[in-house]
Amino acid sequence: MGEERLTDELLEQLLASATPEAYLAETGIGDRSLPEYLGQLLAEKRLVRSEVIRAAGVNPTFGYQIFQGTRHPGRDTAIMLAFGLRCSLIETQRLLRLAGVSELWCKVPRDAIIIFALQHGYSRVETDDELYRLGEKTLLAGED
């Protein structure tokens, strides 16, 4: 996949482009689906889908349907998959965008805890422990 480009860099490139089509063609923005991205992450990280789903704490049937593109995850399930995939914050934000849900925002206390956990390599279980300890809804409680 190469190095993920920052939003500021992409904005500069967009503003310097002659047309929106030129920018989209040059960057490939929007060319990837969630299942494609999940497959790419699996391959890059040399992970096994069943292990990711188990580490994420997602229902196996639902997890496989998400990877196949027949079901879409809600926000918490997408975040749980990010933990199962050992995603960086940037990878998690992209996963959330492709899932069609809101990205993590550091001004929201629950999101700030999740961002901290991602940055410090916490597992989904460790993150849920922190959320619970700090009085926030855990990921496994889920809304999906």
Describe it for me?
- This protein is mostly helical and 144 residues long.
- The chain has one domain.
- Helix content is 62%, strand content 0%.
- It contains nine helices and no strands.
- The protein starts with 6 loop residues before the first helix and ends in an 11-residue tail after the last helix.
- 24% of the residues are buried.
Describe the structure concisely.
The protein is mainly alpha-helical and 144 residues long. It has one domain (32-133). It has nine helices and no strands.
Sheet having the most strands? none
Taken together, the total number of domains comes to 1
Structural class: mainly alpha
Tally of helical segments = 9
Secondary structure elements and their pairing?
Blueprint: H1 7-16, H2 20-27, H3 34-45, H4 49-56, H5 60-68, H6 75-84, H7 89-99, H8 109-119, H9 124-133
